[in-house]
Specification:
Length: 666
């Protein structure tokens, strides 16, 4: 059996060498440089270009091909960037989140290269006897053996580290070859290495205040220090990428820059937003230019890489998703203390620009998706894509053809995957502060994915992969995975709701209904559980029960679009507590105005509007709910408690009022 496996590998290697020359002798000299800019939003790029502010992106558009890049949910960086690098869906490549659990120790660990179950571009190109360089790409630690250089995502600074950066100098596991760590050490910049002049365009702090903050131990909860970290990391990986490109001249280089996403998470709600007051206005005064300046910084990076291209190079600039910039959070408390904006503000469309050798100028790319990147890059290098890569080659923008015929697979055995070889270093556990940081981003709630042989795995971490299977219509596989998750975490209401969804898709409605009952029992605020139970009731002809559950979902999440649409279809209403009288309708309008004022930081105006609403409709529970929220934002906990007690007296079955009151009392 072992002899047969080696024989198959030999055949695969010979086939690869034979097919690698299909593009002619010139293909041996083709080069591709990929620049990944996390979270770069196409609408913001278009806006800034229209103002004449992003000259290098404008050059890419005028002289190359461009379009929007369709990503796939969940829009989490380790998942999407691994999909981009492998051409495989997450259920195949196995990266499901930021972290995973070591089943032997129970420790939570950052996602690692060992969790990836398929080959990435750097493996494929190395095996084709081409040189590669990889810099900062997600989930590349420990560094894998490649033909060339690999600087892992742990070499510089990472928000999965307790202090934001790995020990200096980089360790042997941070790079391949190990001695590369010494070579790049002078190019790694810590936040304290930045001059005030470098930081000033991003943060309008007084120099003395900036110096005071910099004198304190590094803390990600300080938005100024976090900004420094993002900028230092971007500088480091930019410079390392330029060094490797110029001196080593690889056929393929992949450089990843995270800072565009971090700036959007930190300050995206301030981008071009008008009418802010209070804390938000003060935030905007200090950091209102941070996102725009980071986009201009990204444009300069593009320019620096354009300057070092040769005639045989294709430049690919892309992002894993966009970002809803200038959008205020529905809950003002999420930004009142400068906590990051959550992952739900990610947008499904990123950017894609191709420029240089083999690319048609002034060409619009239509319907490009992240799965198309690996096949297209392979084609640009004169290498065949594989039949088990579901993406297409973007041949409409290529000047050369035909592309090599696809081979069956680059993996070691049919239907399976090889495990990339790494330095084999043990991973460090993630400390609780890091987990709290991920939760504040809206990133945690599930962990990561199974590693080869179960070395680093987590049943909980397979949740994203189960969701992907469901989206692909693989309901039985998704149901089995959700069932395994529930065996590990039977009190998880959200998991039960997801499991019920798969059962419903399999037409096992009675079982689905029972799972939803258990979900609501575990969490009376489970919005999706109420909605999904209503869908089943409506399907069974029980409209009364369906309407009741749609209303309950909207009571706890008034903007939940699926329930709003269903309730309007059945009753003509769009609210759980529709105002019944003229006074209540006027009070509802005032409460809505108060909500908008609070979102913009004007808590005093919001309070005055709610005073008027209470005077008009003293028995309308909604105004007391809003009053409690605004009182909390004003720092008046006792007033918030009084408002919630009144609301609960008017609506005793409201689990949200009861839960918030308990929290305030604690």
């Amino acid at each position: 059996m072992r002899r047969s496996h080696r024989f198959n590998l030999l055949i695969s290697a010979l086939l690869l060498i034979a097919l690698g020359g299909c593009g002619g002798s010139k293909s041996e000299h083709n080069r591709v440089l990929i620049l990944g800019l996390d979270g770069l939003d196409p609408r913001a790029v278009d806006l800034l270009m229209s103002e004449g502010k992003m000259a290098n992106f404008a050059r890419l558009r005028q002289e190359g091909a461009y379009g929007r890049l369709l990503s796939s949910k969940p829009l989490l960086s380790p998942i999407v960037w691994t999909t981009i690098a492998t051409g495989k869906t997450p259920d195949r490549h196995g990266i499901g989140h930021f972290t995973a659990t070591d089943t032997a120790t129970g420790e939570t660990r950052p996602v690692t290269s060992r969790m990836r179950r398929v080959k990435a571009l750097w493996n494929i190109v190395s095996e084709a006897q081409r040189e590669v360089a990889v810099v900062g790409w997600w989930a590349t630690w420990p560094a894998e053996e490649v033909r060339g250089s690999l600087v892992s995502d742990h070499a510089a600074y990472h928000f999965l580290f307790e202090q934001g950066f790995s020990p200096a100098p980089p360790s042997a596991a941070d790079t391949f070859p190990a001695e590369l760590a010494q070579r790049i050490a002078p190019l790694l910049r810590r936040p304290d290495d930045l001059s005030f002049d470098e930081i000033a365009p991003f943060a309008h702090l007084d120099p003395a205040e900036a110096a005071r903050r910099r004198s304190q131990p590094f803390d990600f909860n300080d938005e100024f220090r976090h900004l420094e970290w993002a900028l230092a990391t971007a500088n480091s990986y930019r410079d390392i990428g330029l060094e490797l490109w110029n001196r080593d001249r690889p056929n393929l280089e992949m450089v990843y820059i995270e800072g565009t996403d971090s700036m959007a998470h930190l300050f995206g709600h301030l981008f071009r937003t008008e009418g802010l007051s209070g804390d938000l206005a003060r935030q905007q005064q200090l950091y209102g230019d941070a996102v725009e300046q980071m986009y201009l910084f990204a444009d300069r990076i593009v320019g620096q890489y354009l300057d070092v291209l040769d005639a045989n190079t294709t430049l690919v600039v892309l992002s894993d998703h966009g970002f809803d910039l200038g959008t205020l959070h529905d809950n003002p408390s999420m930004t009142s203390d400068m906590r990051r904006v959550s992952e739900r503000f990610h947008n499904i469309e990123g950017v894609l620009y191709l420029y240089g050798r083999g690319i048609k100028a002034r060409t619009r790319i239509e319907r490009a998706a992240i799965l198309d990147i690996t096949p297209t890059v392979l084609a640009l290098l004169g290498l065949p894509a594989a039949s088990d890569m579901p993406g297409r080659i973007l041949s409409e923008v290529l000047t050369e053809g035909p592309v090599p015929q696809r081979l069956a697979s680059y993996e070691a055995h049919a239907g399976g995957a090889s495990t990339p070889s790494t330095a084999g270093e043990t991973t460090g556990a993630v400390d609780q502060a890091v987990l709290d940081r991920l939760k504040s981003l809206g990133y945690l709630g599930t962990a990561s994915s199974k590693g080869e042989g179960g070395e680093e795995s987590s049943p909980t971490g397979d949740r994203n992969l189960a969701g992907i299977l469901f989206e692909e219509g693989k309901y039985r596989e998704a149901a089995r995975l959700y069932k395994a998750l529930l065996d590990e975490d039977p009190d998880n209401a959200s998991l039960r709701t997801s499991f019920a969804g798969t059962l419903g898709a399999l037409d096992r409605l009675d079982e689905a209904t029972e799972q939803l009952r258990l979900a609501i029992e575990a969490d009376p605020l489970s919005i999706e559980a109420y909605h999904n139970r209503a869908v089943i009731s409506e399907r069974n002809g029980d409209l009364e029960s369906a309407i009741a559950d749609y209303r309950q979902a909207l009571r706890y999440a008034p903007d939940y679009a699926p329930s709003r649409a269903a309730l309007h279809r059945l009753t003509g209403q769009v609210s759980a507590d529709e105002p019944q009288t003229a006074a209540e309708r006027e009070a509802f309008s005032l409460a809505d105005q108060a909500s908008d004022a609070a979102r913009r930081g004007n808590y005093d105006q919001a309070w005055d509007l709610l005073d008027q609403a209470v005077a008009l409709a003293p028995d309308y529970p909604l105004v007391y709910q809003y009053r409690a929220n605004v009182a909390y934002l004003r720092g008046d906990r006792q007033a918030a408690i009084r408002a919630l007690k009144t609301a609960l007296e008017l609506q005793p079955d409201n689990a949200l009022f009861r839960q918030n009151l308990q929290r305030l009392r604690r």
